[in-house]
Write a structure and sequence with these properties.
InterPro entries: Nuo9.5. It comes from Byssochlamys spectabilis (Paecilomyces variotii). Keywords: Membrane, Transmembrane, Transmembrane helix, Ubiquinone. This is Putative NADH-ubiquinone oxidoreductase 9.5 kDa subunit. The chain has about 90 residues and is an all-alpha fold. It has a domain of about 50 residues. The chain is about 45% helix and about 0% strand. The chain is built from 3 helices and no strands. Helix 2 crosses helix 3. The longest helix is centred in the middle third of the chain and has 26 residues. It is elongated.
Length: about 90
């Protein structure tokens, strides 16, 4: 039994696949670039000075004694409901 054609001459097989089945060949090439980019792009971004943004807060900030936060823009008193916008 002979070895599969791909393992006996891989470069020749890749050349054949690029001509005969280009959609499959190039989709595999582009798809394999994802994991490579996952490993290589963060150091390149940091080298050029790009920093990750601060994470979006998931909770409302709680005032603590040792942390100075700006005043909260929450109005005091009952909520005034505008007239004329309700479904009737």
């Amino acid at each position: 039994m002979s070895a599969p054609h791909f393992w006996s001459t891989p470069l020749r097989y890749l050349r054949w696949a690029s001509y005969e089945k280009p959609a499959i060949f190039y989709s595999i090439i582009v798809g394999s670039m994802g994991p490579v980019a996952l490993v290589t792009l963060p150091p390149i971004r940091r080298f050029f000075g790009d920093v990750d943004p601060e994470p979006i807060p998931l909770t409302y900030p709680i005032r603590q004694a040792n942390v100075r936060l700006p005043p909260t823009p929450v109005p005091k008193g009952p909520r005034v409901i505008p007239q004329g916008f309700d479904d009737e």
